[in-house]
Write a structure and sequence with these properties.
Largest sheet: 6 strands, mixed
Order of helices and strands: EHHHHEHHEHEEHEHEEHHEHEH
Number of helices: 13
CATH topology of the largest domain: Malonyl-Coenzyme A Acyl Carrier Protein, domain 2
Helix content: 40-55%
Mean pLDDT: 97
Radius of gyration: 18 Å
Strand order of the largest sheet: 8-7-2-1-9-10
CATH architecture of the largest domain: 3-Layer(aba) Sandwich
Low-confidence stretches: none
Number of domains: 2
């Protein structure tokens, strides 16, 4: 039986102008942006719609991305498009949980605002780094960096694209070893911290304290967590997984393989860009991927699926 999944990108996909057409043309999308702006005491219209430097700062990016993705999700659901499963890459997991019914939209937006601040402030600028490793098998990367302290895998994105993370000097040493070991290319990433590394364990612990004040709801559909790449049906597990996710590797390739094994053959990538489509084509090029990033996409999706 055919299944449909909503999937959500992470930090780095943001772009000035994202969501502006949804704000203009959808009352429910507009209401979410306005409510989120009030809840955060932050002008999300200016942050998302007008070119500015703040959009690329972690403490602002996360709330902007989640608000935009959930506003688009509202419009898709109003048009009758409902997922059988959801998943999101890193930050996108919060959208996946909200879309699956496990968290109120505004709670998700408030939580990622706090997450962004914690992630940005936990490690001083310059002390951590991340590096993408291209065209090298994950097991070879793991072997080569295994004896380097303070470096680990951050993202298993797809075959041929792995990201490492950790203390700056350790990542630089690992980069050199990986080049010598046969990596086709390495790219130091322009990020503000060593995301998904052990250096952020304390940020996850503080985030867990924030979540103690939130009410989670039973899931209407399952989502797949980055931490284990397995289906979550029990919302009681979510707080612990989100706290762990801050410092644990993102198992995106394994998450997509799990969803495919569960029968998902059509994916709707919700939010700016086509990053997840690119990953999925390297994981399983035969699966269908639709995109919801601008208003015109919604009609195309409805036509394709209903």
């Amino acid at each position: 039986m055919s299944k449909l999944a909503f999937i959500y990108p992470g930090q780095g996909a943001q772009t000035a102008g994202m969501g502006a057409d949804f704000y203009e043309k959808s009352a429910s999308a507009r209401a979410l942006y306005d409510a989120a702006s009030e809840a955060l005491s932050l002008d999300l219209k200016e942050l998302c719609f007008v070119p500015n430097e703040k959009l690329d700062l972690t403490e602002y990016t996360q709330a902007a991305m989640v608000t935009t993705c959930l506003a688009i999700t509202r419009v898709l659901k109003e048009r009758g498009i409902e997922p059988d499963m959801t998943a999101g890459l890193s930050l996108g997991e919060y959208c996946a949980i909200a879309a699956a019914g496990g968290m109120e939209e505004l709670d998700a937006i408030r939580l990622v605002r706090k997450r962004g601040i914690l992630m940005q402030n936990t490690v001083p600028a310059g002390e951590g780094a991340m590096c993408a490793v291209i065209a090298m098998a994950a097991e070879d990367i793991e072997r080569i960096i295994s004896d380097i302290e303070d470096v680990s895998v951050a993202n298993y994105n797809c075959p041929g694209q792995i990201v490492i993370t950790g203390k700056t000097k350790a990542v630089e040493e690992a980069e050199q070893r990986l080049k010598e070991g046969g990596a086709k290319r390495t790219v130091m990433l322009n990020v503000s911290g060593p995301f998904h590394s052990k250096m952020l364990v304390s940020a996850g612990e503080q985030l867990a304290e924030e979540m103690e004040h939130l009410v989670f709801s039973p899931l209407r559909v399952p989502y797949v967590t980055n931490v284990t790449a397995e289906t979550v049906n029990d919302i009681e597990k979510t707080k612990g997984l989100l706290a762990e996710q801050v410092s644990a590797p993102v198992r995106w390739q394994q998450s997509m393989e799990h969803m495919i094994a569960e029968g998902v053959d059509t994916f709707v990538e919700i939010g700016p860009g086509k990053t997840l489509d690119g990953f999925l084509r390297k994981i399983d090029k035969d699966k269908r991927v639709l995109h919801a990033s601008v208003w015109e996409d919604v009609d195309k999706i409805v036509e394709a699926l209903l």
